[in-house]
Queue: 3 jobs
Job 1
Amino acid sequence: MSRLALGGISKRFGEQVAVRDFNLTVEDGELVSFLGPSGCGKTTTLRITAGFESPDMGSIVLDGVDVTDLPPNRRGMGMVFQGYALFPNMTAAENVDFGLSVRKRPAAERKARIAELLELFGLAHVAGSYPHQMSGGQQQRVALARAVAIQPGVLLLDEPLSAVDAKVREELRTEIRRMQVQMGITTILVTHDQSEALSISDRVVVMNRGAIEEVGTPAQIYAEPRSAFTARFIGAMNEIPVRIVSAAHGLVERGERRVTVAGATGLADGELALLLVRPESLEPLGPTSGTLNGDLTMAGQVEVQTFLGATTRLLVREVPTRAGDPTALPPTQRFAVDIPSANAGRWPTGSNLSVKIPVGVSRLIADRSAPGGVLSSSATSGGKAKPYA
Amino acid sequence: MSGTSITGEATEETLPAVVAGAEARRSARKRPGRGPRMPVWAAVTLLMAAVYFLLPLYGTAVFGFSTGKHFTLQPLFDGLADEGFQASLQLSLTYSIVTTILALLVVAPTAYLVELRFPRLRTAIEFVTILPFVIPPIILAVGLETVFGINSPINLIASSWAPVLLIGGYFVLTLPFVFRAIDNALRAVDVRMLSEASASLGAGPVRTFLRVIVPSISLGLVSAALLAFTTAMGEFTLAALLGYATFPVYLLNVNGYEPRMGEGLVLVSFVITWAGVIALAAVARKAPGTLAFSRGALM
Amino acid sequence: MSATTPASFAGTPAAAKRRGGRAAITLLPFAVLISLFLVAPTLSLIWGSFHDNKTGVFTFENYSYLQHPLDLVPFKNSLELSLASTVVGGLVGLLIAQAIVSSRRPIIQEIATTFSSVAANFAGVPLAFAFIATLGANGLLTRQLLNAGVDLYGGGFKLYSVLGLTIVYAYWEIPLMVLVMLPPLQAMKPAWREAAEILGASRWQYLRSVAIPILMTPFISSLLLLYANAFGAYATAYGLTDGFVALVPIQISNLINGDISFDPGQADALAIGLAVIMVVCIGGRAILERRSARWLAR
């Protein structure tokens, strides 16, 4: 049975539409992330779920009960706020106790539960400390412990890791996932950090301008994005210009090569379009490379090598095969190729590189809204994609 | 005094926008299309407060602007034309301006050097700048009288050095405000980084202070100047006890023999306070944290 | 010289010392002004309070007022007046500050803050005269009330009584309270309330367990400021009464300026008594502020 159902939620603030027809069911024990750029409506949707905002339209059904008109304090949900919102006048233990004491649970039970939770989150040694005496990571754990202490039907996490530094963030998100699986708590996580969403979610809801762009598992969202927005928003992405020769036959042209691709329907013949390809999908061509099997190519000079760990990213300035080619990358833009770091020595800065563009894993979109060139965002840059200049 | 400046933490660039957005949403809750609702009790409270605070001003205006039954601005004109008034105002202006300049010239370099070179002196300086709160003007007046008064071997009051005594006293009285305003401004910019950057480009300490630090704390300096000026303009206790005929002292005397003119001049005094505070508010809008001050303790 | 010393300040130890010396000279004017006009008067006050001002002999005589109930009347009056104006100013000021925060209108917040700053600074002689014109024996409000059948002065009210002075002092105590309580009230995070709410707390439970405990420290600290503010005030009381009221600051001024009661030694001793009260208030405030800053840090 589904634990939580958000049906047809809409919300406007004045003239501005914050959430538009939001439909989602969350299964018992599932961790679902709302992912999107700031202002996409993910926080508003979460606050509507919690009861801090009332939707203009739609309903919130929790365990088969319509809670749309219930105030927050009667919904039995747990929430971790951006910046934690720990009560500064209470110790860690007292913060965790707050929800229990409000519920007037017997003292012995409270005591046992607090001890158990502090132990579980590795907070036993700071039980008597005040928030200002704790590190960011510790405060975050107290906020989590406080939220789950009341055994909430649904746990809501509003950018829970945005206030801790990068190293602690990775550690904590694994911990959140571990705790969530262990306790089987149905959880909604709001984040603008794609690596956070992809790494610990069962499903990801990608949001854009108040509406759901798409819903899928992290693997689906990354490998087979159904919308151009998702494709660009998640991970690093090359946007390579091609010209539509025949939309009906899916025939596109780049430089001197023509290939057939899927997804050309709806585009006009002669129009410029963009192929979206991830940097790791571009295959460097060696002198001994075999046939191209109807794939496109791209060649240029390596300008920068960026060591990323297991892989190294090459930023390459394209050298067009003929002058005035409309499908050549604009001169200010570079394309990115990820290669195993072990091979990085073969393409030092200044060397020439040709790559195969495997059309099978590429996605074709119209050029109209395109920022053009290579669109990329590193895994932790917060989802705001910036073209390489 | 509460004067903490609001400095944003260095977080991811998208974060403030998110927070601001959520903030705006929060306050706009349940009121689509219109401004947020003001609770009735808040409106009633503010209204009653406004009545209480405006009533004495109204009473002053009615008394000062009428001769028996008719409305007239004559007492105000009489007051403004009065030679005693003009002389006292001139004296107050002179003392206030000199105090302001002195305070800026002395406190700004001191606060800068303490921040940059002598961090260990900070506690001591902060203690000193709080002292004028502990030692209100009435106590300071007694102390100054003992050290520089008529019965003292260093009799400044009866000498041509008399202005120095009052200005020195005003320097002390305005110190808490002046130091706090300048110090807040200094802490809002990274003084050490700016100084090191300036030094790395070859500037000496004096040039660094004048060309880099002063421009970057200009709002704090303006705040400090306004605070010093308005405080000195309204100061009564030191002037009265040490025997200077400043404007507030004259105001007290004139009320004894010419009450209507006195009430007219009260409004002049009020206008001076208004002008000072509104100028401060304009500065404080750009540099938050400087507005919450009161001269009450120093009166 | 610490490790963070910028490169340009380094160099030979002697050069560094010379520069340090030059920097220290810059602090000299400040030190001189403070010594002359703050430290010297304070020390002479302390010295004077323990010495006979005629013979210069060490004595506790100046503090004899502590043993005579009659001599303690100014202290009793000042304590009462300060307490009354602190309670009135504190409660009304808190109410107004919360009303300003709750108004949620930026324009009202701005006007109210600016006006509070004006009112908090409209103290002293002008304020005294404004109240004489309004609530004095012939004041505007007094006459209006008389016309309406309420005889204030017939009922025993006097503007220069403790009650009257309280009303006048409230004119700057209230806005001062508004100014010092606004920042902590505004620093209350909406998320605290929401966190309490989602954990199941009612409005009252939130107030009792979270809001009131957090605000208690800045509230008490503000009251201390108001108390010190009222206790040390001289100009307003003098303007209202011409010096004919038994308050500590007035008594001090009479002792150094009066013809009959001239006694600088006792003035010094009274001033020390006043300073002790100030130290307690301002010192207590400084301690509380530190705690409050930790809780309400952004």
Job 2
Amino acid sequence: MSAPLSLGPARPVPLSAVNPVAQLSAVLVVTCVLLVSGDLVTPGVLLAAELALLPAAGLSRPGDVLRRTWPLLLSALGVAWVNVAFGSLDGAEAWLSGATWALRVVALALPGILLVASTDPVRLADALTVHWRVSTRFAYGSLAALRLVPLLAAEWETIRLARRARGVEGGRDPVAHVRLLASTAFALLVGAIRRGSRLATAMDARGFDSGVTRTNARGSRLQPLDRWFVTGAVALCAAAVTASVLSGAWSPVFS
Amino acid sequence: MEDPVPPRGTRRAPRVPGTGSFQHDGVGPAAVRLAGFGFRHASRRAWAVQDVDLRIEPGERVLLTGASGAGKSTLLRALGGLLEPESGDAAGELTVDGAAPDRRRQRVGVVFQDPDAQLVMTRAGDDVAFGLENTGTPPELIWPAVDTALDAVGFCLGRDHATAALSGGQKQRLVLAGALAPRPGLLLLDEPTAQLDPDGAALVRAAVARAVADRSATLVVVDHDVEAWLPLVDRVVELLPHGGTVEHPPGWRPAPLRMPVRWVHEPGEVLLAGEAAGFTHRGSARPALAPTDVALRAGRTLAVTGPNGTGKSTLALLLAGLRAPTTGRVVAAPTVTAGLRRPDRPPHRWPAAELATRIGTVFQQPEHQFLTGRVRDELALGSLRSGAGAAQARATAEELLERLGLAALADANPFTLSGGQQRRLSVATALATAPRVLVLDEPTFGQDRETWAELVALLAEQQDGDRALCLVTHDAAVVTALADDVCTLGVPVPV
């Protein structure tokens, strides 16, 4: 009853050639460095590198980039504004601190966006279970559950309309709106749990609970490219920190 | 798509294990034995299944039928070894190939009703491979088996096709391939076509026929829609509501559907009309409903039919005042809008309480519409919402309880009712506010014959000189039974 939404296979982009666990490792390295650094140079250098990777993740048109990143940009601006408006610093220092924070937020979140844009959900589950020994029950269970999320959106709309047909809607009363929202959410939750348990039964009927060690039809291979990718990320972080220290801007958070 | 299936009654010799392409582990179709079998769900006093004696030989195809609530699905779950011992008490004996079914799980493939609650992966091939991965099949053996299974069900869209982009029938076909891939000796189907339109259902039955043509697996189908499966099965076994079974002889046909008694009324004034009303989802290029002219007249019943994807349900939502048309408009007659504060507004902008007293809607899934914990309250709610006093609302509820045969259930929770009872209650809730127009979306979807007849009789009673009914349906029998006029939506859509 509502527009089609779906969790589909991701379109392959150049960055998809890098194994998801290699991408995740690189994200972890970058995240650690950014969490420690408190200056403007380190996130600046890392952000430049991340931006350079956007085309490889299939995000070369500004429209595509904006569609994926607008919530992030908005929150970065929010963080910057809070720092400028309510921080203990004044004048140029306040602006510098605001910019540093905004840059850190963007530099921290952008790798995640790159990962999502370039990674097929099934390949991610494969890589996590094969290389990092993540429980298959968790990985493929989550994957199956994720498939149900778009169905929830359609269900939400149906429940809302069905209630209007019964003569029930919030009207102008905000309290009634909140109560209606809560009861709709509850109905949705009940439906989701029922469907989820049916899904679990169907998966177990296909031997998901057999206790046999699961094989993987697609496999997940680590190649030299993956090693280079992680090495590159480490080298980049080292370069960013070096540049920061040499320019005298380095000011780690814990000092 | 019709595959050569031997007619009922003639029996091909089951394949010798090891000779067929489907028996790589040297085990053929399974034998099933039930002796005095029963099962009672924990927390229930009545037995869901009782006194079932049944022998199913390897390679046989059996249809298990019976009214709603006769325990068909419970029995199927028991055969699949899917009933946890702690979920209830079992009685008698049940074996698959001489052992308890939970020890034969690897020999059994199951297909349930809801395709969306069975698909796991995002790509067709990966989904079929899922079961093989679970049983530890070496990767190099998986893909040939996947291709064999896809071929066995006639799925030809390719391994990489996105599962989310499939129609219901194709999804269910894929689920069947997934169940067949590990080469089960026993294939169990639990109302596999109950949530599909007639085309999708035919597609799935053709796939089943194709897959079991070589008798490489014993087949047990649970369904109340007997007619459709008859050409495909050797035996029909009916579960009786209070225990025990009856086996119908070869050549048996179910009794014809009971048609309601009804009066045909003179067409009255147009109460509600769609004038070139169409709908396109935001961000979608293709309209969900092409501009449509439709008129609902007092005293008449209009059936809206047509293949999937032509926007039948969307048209119902527009007429019901639940969605705004993106093109054209929906207009209500002055006799319907009388009493509205702003009678010039279209139905989708009427306040909900005003809408409910003018246009009633019954949704496909009744539980979406239930809002209270008691049948009695559920029936009083609409009247209360639209400004009737508590005493009057209670009186309306009591009258409807009597009229619709729900009096015995007055204090039950609507969510605990059976499918047929829920359906009747959802029609009753729409009637409680006495609307002039009643819109029903697939009112008989997934109902057994008994409930079907009850529901159609109930709807026939609602046809009077003053009221207009609109039925959106795939069910040709409902159209025959109730419709005065038929509107067929027919924009062919690529699947």
Job 3
Amino acid sequence: MFYRAAGQFKTSYRADQALFPVRQDAMLLGFILILAWVVFPLTASEFAFQTLLIPILIYSLAALGLNILTGYAGQLSLGTAAFMGVGAYACYKMVTLMPWMSPVVAILLSGVFSAGIGVVFGIPSLRIKGFYLAIATLAAQFFLVWLFEKWAWLYNYNASGAIQVPNLQSFGVYVSGPQATSMVQYYVVLAVVTLLTWVCINLTRGTTGRIWKATRDMDFAAELIGINLMKSKLGAFAVSSYIVGVAGALFVFMWRGAAEPNLFDVPLSFRILFIAIIGGLGSILGNYLGAILIVGLPVILGVLPEVLGMQTDSALAEHLNTMIVGALIIFFLIVEPHGLAQLWRLIREKLVIWPFPH
Amino acid sequence: MLHDIFIAPFADMIAAPDFLMQVLWEGLVSGILYALIALGFVLIYRSSRIFNFAQGIMVVFAALTLVGLHAMGVPAWISVVLTLAVMFGLAVAIERVVLRPLVGQPDIILFMATIGITLFLIGFGEIIFGGENKVMITEELGIPTGSWTLEPFGGLLILEQKDVTAVAVAAMLVVGLLVFLNRTQMGRAIRALGDDSQAALSVGISLRTIWVLVWFIAGIIALVTGIAWGARAGVSFALEVIAYKALPVLMLGGLESIAGAIIGGLMIGVLEKLFEIYWGQPLLGGNTETWFAFVLALIVLLFRPQGLFGERIIERV
């Protein structure tokens, strides 16, 4: 009923290959964009901005970056958090060395540095595959976090060893630091996320995306049909690390406000991997669904006892939270190993033919 | 600079051979523990191609259960037996709830499921046992706690007796495991399942029994590791980080090889200690142990993509 495709005829191959084969898809996306750009910012409270809207967007962006590498190009990576760290530290160095630089430009440029580092740590992927590669990316994870801690130049020789986000203006409005308002930060994050998502959708639909998918499905066969594996794999590492680096810069500059090296430790990498896998590998939409689940769930679990009028101490709630997240991961893997995106695909197919079964 | 890298460390080693031996011994002991964790990984990987990330938390869980039971007033050896029963229950539960519905899924899904198990056990363990550091019941288990002092080259070398015990027990465990895998019917079934699961199923080997069995054996290994490491550093969730150390050991030794796990563990234990003491602390500001093993394994993998002892990876299109 909602998705009735009757009457929408395709008269050219081009139209058939279009981004939205069914008109309602475009309308749905427009609706979501209006929600994200107009309705949420006008209605959201400070709490909603800080615990839901901004983190969900940032986590989905990081998961999107990982998904390009793992879901599309098939190279399993466990070092995502470290590349986020590279982006954050690069951004911090840029805005402190060049204070005249607009923070938004700095955030977009910081991804370039993490892309460079990503390519360096991606070189082993030409020889190492599967779990061996996953552990090899852990080398990047541990080495980079150690470097953030020991290389004092990175945090400007602070006594605390942490980076503090300064107050920065762009077009006369405070964008980062304690003086920036949540709504401005939300719009910056949203703009970056929208832009990069748009780029990724088109990248994965075109030649590049198909080359990545061929590499993922069987790299030897891909090589035999003339795909340059080095370009394809390292390209995936570069694009993925760029997005992850930008997400890292946003993570610190638009949300956390300060960062210590151990913020970028392994648990963050796994969190992002959860989002990508529960959302669905090889899907763009899945990252958002996964992030909503993984970020939103602890918030709900944290608020729930209060709503129900129960007294719990915070430590117990946190442990219970860990336990429930672990159980839910297993539950979702069993119920739908292809992720929430696949679930949406099934619902959509049902909706298209509803209310008739055939 | 070059002098600091290539000459000074070796001069230090020659100048104080007793200190070098102490460093080597410390490395060897932690290497044994890495090897034990890696052994749990290898066993499960060989029989089911599951990359079991939860091995580290199983070590913590086993040690916490043991200490917790003893704190409730259960005699030491009975709590060991009870802990083994708990680990068996855990193996059955994991097989029943997690693995059975996921049979035949891609490797990465099963890997994620073991991370889910890890999170679950962390939360569960924290609620039941609490997060604070506990003392392992070393003496109650009859493990000697004294130390031997040797004097090689006119210097001083201290061997803690509990470390020696740990090495001896680990060696016995490995020998026992090898005998079990190579000489008993069950052991052969495990290896058969690892070689070709379809063929193994068709000759009547039960996948479910074997999976419970290997997870139980991994649980036993986890308990031994937990006792040995807990005797050195106390029992807490910080132990979980040593699970990460087992990963480069696996890469270095090869995912399928038991010998590889042992030799890789010892190599990494010794080399990372040497690097930390002679290069890391003077030149790099210390704490290099967090990444050295990974970088070493990465370099080895560039030359041998299947690790030192792993099965050769043959790909067909």
